[in-house]
Amino acid sequence: MTRVVLVYESKYGNTKLVAKTIAEGVREVGGIETILCEVKEVDFDKILDYDVILIGSLNHLGRPLRSVRKFIEKLGKLNLEGKQIAVFDTYIGSDFEKTVKKMEKRISEKVPGLKLMVPGLSIKVQGIKGPILDEELPRCKDFGRKIVTQIST
User: What is the pLDDT of residues 51-104, one digit of tens each?
Assistant: First the structure.
């Protein structure tokens, strides 16, 4: 069975909601074990057990949170050859895809063995504390379903 882990950091619950909704999209397809995990709770001894790693962060001053950047650094110390990855973020204002692009760049530099599955997902929230715009949540489910179609077998 394919295993997917969604690792995220969320301050006000918006990025967590995005992670949960992406997981719903993955689960709709079926046959895939999906785990949600806050970045501070990740057990690096078990990361190798997953086929796909999804990483999410809110946009903090145009980049991912420090905990997410450190998580990516730690991934670079593991042999993740053949594993797949995708990223997502939440943002306000005009920072569309800013954090996603920085996470993708950092991953390509620090963890070259990982294969980027799809371009990252950037979800807009209304103000610093949210909520997520209503029209954005269906995009999260679609992203989850798209991840499943891209999984290498």
Answer: 999 999 999 888 999 999 999 999 999 999 999 999 999 999 888 899 999 999
Domain 2-150 in CATH 3.40.50.360: yes
Provide the token pair at 143: 């992203």
**Confidence check: pLDDT of 123 > 80:** yes
* Separation between Cα atoms, residue 97 and residue 88, nearest integer Å: 9
**Among candidate residues 118, 74, 85, 119, the one with its CA nearest the CA of residue 101:** 119
Closest by CA to 126, choosing from 118, 134, 117, 115, is: 134
Give per-residue burial for 122-149: e unless 16+ CB within 10 Å, then b. Answer: bbbbeeeebebeeebbebbbebbbbbbe
Q: Given the structure tokens 């796909």, which residue do they identify?
A: 52
**Beta partners for residue 66, in sequence order:** none
Decide: 83 and 119 in contact? Cβ < 8 Å.
Answer: no
